[in-house]
Amino acid sequence: MNLKRSLPNILITGTPGVGKSTISKKLADRTKFTWRDVSKLAEEYNCLDEYDPEYQCPFLNEDKLLDIMEGMMAKGGNVVDYHGCEFFPERWFDGVFVIRTNNTMLYDRLAVRGYTGKKLDDNVQCEIFETILEEAQSSYKPEIVVQLQNETEEQLLNNVQSIVDWIERWKEENI
Ligand SMILES: Nc1ncnc2c1ncn2[C@@H]1O[C@H](COP(=O)(O)OP(=O)(O)O)[C@@H](O)[C@H]1O
């Protein structure tokens, strides 16, 4: 915990397609926290380097992005949304929520998004092998890492509510 923050910073992470943006947007609407879509920030602040043909996406200039985000994170009240979590400074986050979706449902969501071939297979395997969960567990203290299953509309509402409740508890304990 960082004593200078009056509100917590939340990280919403997980494989592409698990529902991070959907949850982050609803959470930001409910809490008035600021939604930081890291992929969009990277584009907006020119942190994308040349295109990686193997993974069909541009390389991220992590150092430049972290420098830009540092000031945004200082006061707390951020919902940071990204499909990776190990390159952020550990001190930035009070709660890390790893969103999970079963493989067949994730496959369908990514296919609808237009993913095909290696990109589609790699992302589904990322979920099967729990890559992001392991990344989160090795990068942050276990007590701040929470897994949330996100497959149905009911789970979506419950997940948003449980993060809202988590924020309220953080405020009671830290303010
Ligand atoms: N709990 C859910 N139930 C049904 N569909 C969902 C749920 N959460 C997300 N989705 C859908 O799955 C797709 C991927 O969600 P998105 O939030 O864009 O994922 P991410 O930001 O992790 O890539 C979207 O079409 C979204 O509407």
UniProtKB/TrEMBL annotation:
Localization annotation: Cytoplasm; Nucleus
E.C. designation(s): 2.7.4.3
One Pfam family per UniProt: AAA_18
Entries under Gene3D superfamilies matching the protein: P-loop containing nucleotide triphosphate hydrolases
Cellular component aspect of the GO annotation: cytoplasm; nucleus
GO molecular function ontology, one term from the record: ATP hydrolysis activity
InterPro entries, per database record: Adenyl_kinase_AK6 (IPR020618), P-loop_NTPase (IPR027417)
Keywords, in A-Z order: ATP-binding, Cytoplasm, Kinase, Nucleotide-binding, Nucleus, Ribosome biogenesis, rRNA processing, Transferase
Region (LID): 112-122
SUPFAM superfamilies attached to this UniProt entry: P-loop containing nucleoside triphosphate hydrolases (SSF52540)
Superkingdom of the source species: Eukaryota
Residues reported in the UniProt entry to bind ATP: G17, G19, K20, S21, T22, R113
Catalytic activity: AMP + ATP = 2 ADP; ATP + H2O = ADP + phosphate + H(+)
Function of the protein: Broad-specificity nucleoside monophosphate (NMP) kinase that catalyzes the reversible transfer of the terminal phosphate group between nucleoside triphosphates and monophosphates. Has also ATPase activity. Involved in the late cytoplasmic maturation steps of the 40S ribosomal particles, specifically 18S rRNA maturation. While NMP activity is not required for ribosome maturation, ATPase activity is. Associates transiently with small ribosomal subunit protein uS11. ATP hydrolysis breaks the interaction with uS11.
UniProt-listed HAMAP family: Adenylate_kinase_AK6
Subunit structure, as described in the record: Monomer and homodimer. Interacts with small ribosomal subunit protein uS11. Not a structural component of 43S pre-ribosomes, but transiently interacts with them by binding to uS11.
PANTHER family given in the database record: ADENYLATE KINASE ISOENZYME 6, POS9-ACTIVATING FACTOR FAP7-RELATED
Stated name of the protein: Adenylate kinase isoenzyme 6 homolog
Organism phylogeny: Eukaryota, Metazoa, Ecdysozoa, Arthropoda, Hexapoda
